[in-house]
Amino acid sequence: MSREQRRMDRRGQSKPGSRAAGGPPSRRTPVKAPGGGGVPIVPIAVAAGTFAVVLLVVYLVLQSRGADSVDLSKPEREEQNDSASIAGTYVVSQGRGHFSYRYSPDRTPTPFCDGVAWSGNPSGSASGSGSIAGATTPAGSATPQASATGEATAAASGTAPADATTAGGTPVATATVPTNCYNSNPPSSGRHVNAQRNVDLGNGAIINIPPDPDVYPPDVQIPREAIAHILEHAGVFIGYNCESGNTACEDVVADIEDLANNRIDNHDDRVVVANDSDLVPNTIGAAAWTRVLSMSVADYDRDALEDFIADNSCRIDWEGFCR
């Protein structure tokens, strides 16, 4: 074999150590193929979309609650709380307006709205001299409805007469709630007489307005326009009206007085108990701000009345009387 032929044969053979010659594999570091790394775009997009959905849900929830609800105080929120879990029947608020005049036993009292039963008009119809027609408010009803004519239109307008002012910047009432009559008996909100001391009720009985938590003797009748002031001061008013000689009613009143004294002495509840001739005879009526509880003497339920006191005393504390 010539020298030239041997040189050609060597060129055709693989170099020692190459893969073709069965040599060991290359020790060079392997390089990943293009496109195998970089930012994980899909997971980031999914996370961003989820976050956006959560923000949207939160926004919609806040909008459903109303823009103003975020700024409401605790008493304002509780004033609108119509939950059935709170003892008593919810009655829509008539506001916190004050009368500018001082109490006088000779002054004609603010009437009850049509539909509210009281001693002068047990049926609650418009024919009673102490009620206003048009603002139909059955006892315990949560939503008064006004007609579109006559005096009822002014009652439902939400505007106060010249002798009424607002308290603490709170509107007298919403535009659909009458303000010139009480929409429950006993009153559960609305305009009321300003604070006064040593008020003569006209029969020699002297009280403060609003009266302090206590059980008052039968000759003391809290003026109708002073009851809402008791409630504004985080209190509960309990009234009774017994026909003469009704010993069963008198026994119920004695039990109510015992209950009230116990709640005042042992629980610091703000309770006022007094004779109330506005109530239908042989009836017990309790009121807190936007809550009422009424029962006949025959249906008296001490536990229900105690629940009403426990739930509502200090529940709505407009002026910081409960600490």
Describe the structure.
The protein has 323 residues and is α/β, with parallel strands linked by helices. It is built from 7 helices and 15 strands. It has helices at residues 3-12, 41-65, 74-79, 150-156, 224-232, 247-267, 302-312, and strands spanning 89-90, 98-99, 112-113, 131-132, 135-136, 145-146, 164-165, 192-193, 196-200, 206-209, 214-215, 236-241, 271-275, 283-288, 291-296. Strands 1-15-14-12-13-11 form a 6-stranded mixed sheet. A 3-stranded mixed sheet has the order 7-2-8. It has a two-stranded parallel ribbon with strand order 3-4. The longest helix is centred in the first third of the chain and has 25 residues, at 41-65. The relative contact order is 0.13.
Short structural description:
Helices cover 28% and strands 15% of the residues. The chain has 7 helices and 15 strands. The strands form 5 sheets. It has a 6-stranded mixed sheet with strand order 1-15-14-12-13-11. A 3-stranded mixed sheet has the order 7-2-8.
Gross morphology is elongated
Helix-strand topology string: HHHEEEEEEHEEEEEHEHEEEH
Which residues sit in consecutive blocks of at least 5 with pLDDT less than 50?
A: 134-174
**Which sheet architecture does the biggest sheet show?**
6 strands, mixed
For the terminal residues, how far apart are their CA atoms? 119 Å
Can you count the beta strands? 15
Average pLDDT, rounded to a whole number, is: 80
Strands in their spatial order, largest beta sheet: 1-15-14-12-13-11
